[in-house]
Amino acid sequence: MISSSELIRVRRLPSGVIRIGTVVVGAAGVSRINLPGSTLLYDPLTPRAVPTIEVADVASSAESVGALLGANVVDAMGELSRPDADAVVFDVVPVPSSRLAQLRALGYALWLTETCPWPLPEQLLGAQLVAAASSCLDLLEGREEVRRSLAALAGSLWEVLAAAVSVDTNPDALSVLVTAAHGVADQLPFGDPLHLALEDVVGLAEVAAAPEMNVLDDLLRMCVPHGSAHAGADTAILYAGSATADPSRNSSGLISGEEDAITWTVEISASRRADITVVGSRPPYPRQPAPTPLPELAISSLLGALTGTRRRGPVRQVACSIHVPSWPIAVAEMALAPFGERGSLTGRVTLDGPAADLVIGALTAGTLTIDVHDIGYRFAHLIAPDPTVESARRWSARAVCATRLALAAASPELEFAARAAWTQAMALWGYTRTAPGGSDLATARRRLCGGWLALLEGSDGDLSTDLDMPSAVTVDDREAISATITVAETYAS
Amino acid sequence: MGVSVRSLVAESLDNPRISQYIRWGSGVQRSELARAAHRLVRARWKEHGLRRYGSLDTVLSRTQRVEAARIIGELEPTLCMLAEASAIVIQAIQSECRGQTDSRHVSMEAVSGRSTSAALHHVLARGRLPDRQEAKGLAEDILAAVRAIPETMSAAHFEAVFHELYEVQWRAEGALNLTAFPPSSLLLGRDVRPPLTRPPGAPAETDAYGTDRSVYSRYASYRPGDPASRPPFRSASSRCVQPVTRRQHRDVAAETVHNACLPYGLRQESHRAVLYASHHGLGLAEHPGQADAGVGNRRDLRRVCVELRVDTADDVTEMVRQLARDRTIGGRTPGHTTLIEAEHWAVDGCRPDQFAAHLDRITQVVIRRLWKALHGLELYVEERICSCSLEMTIKVSLQRAVPAALAQWDAPAMDAAEGPELAPEQDLDRLMDAQRLVDAQNATSDLLMRNSTVATQLLLLQPGWQDVYDELVTADRRRYLSSTEFARWCREVVPGAGLARGAGGPK
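ok -> structure tokens follow
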């Protein structure tokens, strides 16, 4: 008798896509890795589970799926893709390959890079991404493009490593840089001067200590919900509120990622003019670019090659758009500029006529949306994710990072922060259950978050026996989770 | 969980005596060592007269598992020796390369498989590690084989050799073809001459570049591989019956330069028809609402493709439409939301209408990927794309289109980063600085609010919107968004914009 824990579900979706594994609920977001003919989805909340793979073309994905999960899964895919197939689901015994661990590491590096739960040393994060990508090159789609993107980083990595060995660099950090350098050097011709230079500098890389980048305080503070301070003085304000810079729309790092770091006020004059002022806090510990950073464009290219998307280039300006439910485009948008000693970013716009009427109406109904984003990004607010979903996802992402660190470092302070973040995330997922169509997904997300919270308390979460749904983490996962902590995370703490 | 030969071999490679040679920087590739190990296991399995285990990934029975573990245990010393021998050969190759002043592009990718294979032969034949002389001999043989592969020119060399030719050919036919077949009409790229090469330090060119891809990048994507292997961009489907004739014996570099001056940079007319048809077939083209009526869209298509292969285009249109319909939730009538379903889209927002505002971007993602496949096929084989390969390309692109579309947007900073070569005069609107764009957006939004009677028509890009818009902004055109920019904005943020009958981009 085979127990359900030994089985994996292969299901044909109504779209014709074949899903291997569970539904991906993505409480903290997911990362996607393009494999031949399929996409692997990595969910950081299910760190040990077999990652979900969505297959678009069975023929071209058969080889890699077979290598990762065994022939039974390939056979099931073949059966499900037949035009005359009646069945839509098979439960089969997989043979998980040890190479899944490499893909998980890449998935986590991608997720960290894209989600930015809290400020991490970008140089190490980039190096981690490079190392992870080069470890599973043979499994990826578009290998040539990934290879070229990696090779393009050679010069920068050489500079970074040369700088790292010339100062006292933390051995773990140095080890990540060396691993990345090897991964890059393998993509260069042996006769390339950079290949030789990289080899030489790798040889020189020795154990040392590094300049500190302590952002632990950031994480601790970001994990604890707190009220926001409003911009402006109380007496002259008619309306005030706060918002959060969602990382999916803010790549500049100019605005703090803390919840409610953006405050706004709207003053309505007697002549029905609306003066809108928006203030965004700078990160308390602004990103200190490394003396020899990895070029953003090169990292963007690598991300693009891995996920098949054209990533935005380095954006160094922030804008704020104002939206109301009855108007599909932005009522107004303004670029935010540095202001004051702390360098907060601020913007102001005065509206009159119909624009002011729309804003006043939305203020009265409590439906005004203030969205801060990279300049050039157009926020489609009518079809954007529910702000509560976005907020819940941010809290979940912080919580999962805090938990990983708490388990790795056995730190009560971090554990407290993680608990606070999980509690907040669960509360928010609870609210989203009431949204139309949000019930099942929100329940699953809440259950996964509850599992992590239980893990911190030393017990198991609500384990799912449904092969379509991901199972929560258990106490047995503690060791595995803490073992996969990355250098970028530990270095930051 | 089950066990297969592949998983047992993978486990055996984690043995520290072996893994020390496949760790970072040691040169030996795990996948190559695993491949050699698989061959050894299969041979030994046969020697023992055991029942065949099917493929490497087949779940083994309990008896087979015991046998496989025993065989792999027996092979452990050989595998250790093989790993070390491979490392010795690779080191010998590196030393050889270091000693040579020429700039042959010998990389790890080119030599790792050959090194492990040579090492395997040596270990099996002699039962020991190669000594220095033997390793040198093996390295020389491998380098000779690698050097027989035609070398890819460097970008600088390519520029030096083909600059003049490209200028001449572009003047002769490229410019005309660009005007007659503007890539932007199919969302393939900008209506500008593709750069010959990218400046050093520019980001790597991905699928998303479409026809904006530099000519050098198109050329460099060609890898003359093993003639026996499946050419890239061809479906692996066992049902495919189309013959494959590999293209050989020609100057790929010169051919790429010439092709860059052809319509959409493609050599085969049928491939252009496939692009048209796919663009229309996605249901996101100029008159998507008429697709269901079975008349309008088809008539347009015939009009566009009359000189091309109408039959092919019809077939493709049907196939793409079928794929899109299979993935559609909700109505297909004009104004309804088109949703291509893939589970992971839901995690981005859990909104069934999330797809609505990104039609252009999604079409762009799919069509540019298809262009890359067509261009790639032309590099490798004589035949045009077969239906299996087309289906594969479209299916995979569709599955990834929404996340890809959501992850990207055209920030002015990115355009600037691409260098001045991509800054055409006719495309100045797109290059307006961020502040000017914001000001124009604000002014346009305000203008529409003050003209509420026509706002819906304009925001949804309903039939005739453009004339109305032109009339509205005529007083001060520079203050407002251009009609192209306005249409783009609406398509990006207004649900249902551009879906109405007869709606479309600016004339």
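Chain B is about 55% helix and 0% strand.
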